[in-house]
Write a structure and sequence with these properties.
Layout lengths: L3 H10 L9 H4 L3 H20 L15 H16 L7 H7 L14 H11 L3 H10 L8 H15 L9 H7 L3 H13 L4 H10 L8 H15 L5 H5 L8 H14 L6 H6 L2 H7 L2
Helix pairs in contact: 1-3, 3-4, 6-8, 10-11
Length: about 280
């Protein structure tokens, strides 16, 4: 339970009453002082419990009461956006600026508005997207997030509000980075429209390395397997399979038996089904 409201009430009780002279404010009341200190320590323990303050912080390095109040205010703001206490350790670790002394909720409010209004994410979906990629909160909405969303939609990607790790990171990827994959596909014989369809059907392609994934697989397909890239246009999921553990072993297994089948049948079947069928 948050304790900052209790803390504030104690601070208010220390304020001078209009019915008392100035001398009353200088009198030290041990009981009142103890209550304030207890409240401060409870707030401190709470913030340590939810992972915002390092539990191993030594007493002389603990934040000031003012900083504690600021952190509690941030916690309340994030809770109002749907986050719960188990979420805070991840947020604090991956997005420490949220819990800095200079953080202002106004800095990230546009991101939540973008997720709700532009992406179409619910409160729960927005939280999940942020937890999967806290870097979203540090991105500029106008110059980064909106252009990326527009570009992804232009390629045909849908349901970007679904809180998957892939969607979260796609939304936080700059357009220039996304364009690299489309331009690569065009360079090996795909039209722009075909490249867009491949990306829409296999959005994970944006996370694949061109030199260590896409190019070697295409070269193996054309040179070793003697297949056409037209097959990849029909079955872009080809890029999602391991070259060394799935594609090459199954190709050579079929080649040894002088068998040739469609790319999707070669790769989609489980090992048991595939090797039982082609003994």
């Amino acid at each position: 339970m948050l304790l900052h409201s209790y803390n504030i009430s104690i601070i208010c009780s220390l304020s001078p009453s209009p019915n008392h002279g100035s001398q009353s404010t200088s009198i030290k009341n041990p009981h009142t002082y103890l209550k304030f200190r207890t409240s401060h320590m409870q707030n401190l323990r709470y913030l340590k419990t939810i992972g915002i303050i390092n539990p191993e912080t030594t007493p002389h390095k603990n934040p000031s009461p003012e900083t504690i109040a600021h952190l509690l205010s941030t916690v309340n703001f994030l809770k109002s956006r749907g986050f719960s206490e188990p979420d805070f350790p991840r947020l604090a670790f991956l997005c420490p600026m949220l819990f800095s002394a200079t953080f202002d909720p106004a800095q990230v409010e546009p991101v939540f508005e973008f997720l709700y209004s532009d992406v179409g994410a619910s409160l729960e979906e927005s939280c999940s997207l942020v937890l999967r990629c806290p870097g979203l909160l540090e991105s500029n909405v106008e110059f980064c997030l909106v252009p990326t969303l527009v570009y992804l939609k232009s390629l045909g990607l849908e349901k970007l509000n679904l809180p998957t790790t892939l969607n979260a990171h796609l939304l936080n990827t700059r357009v220039e980075k996304l364009e690299e994959k489309v331009m690569f596909l065009q360079s090996v014989g795909f039209s722009y429209e075909e490249s867009a369809r491949v990306c829409a059907r296999l959005p994970a392609i944006f996370g694949y390395s061109i030199e260590h994934n896409l190019r070697p697989k295409l070269e193996f397909l054309v040179r070793e397997m003697e297949r056409s890239i037209e097959e990849v246009k029909d079955f872009p999921q080809y890029f999602g399979f391991s070259l060394s553990r799935r594609i090459a072993p199954r190709h050579f297994h079929l080649k040894d038996r002088n068998v040739k089948i469609k790319l999707n049948r070669m790769l989609l079947w489980s090992d048991n089904r595939f090797y039982a069928k082609y003994k």
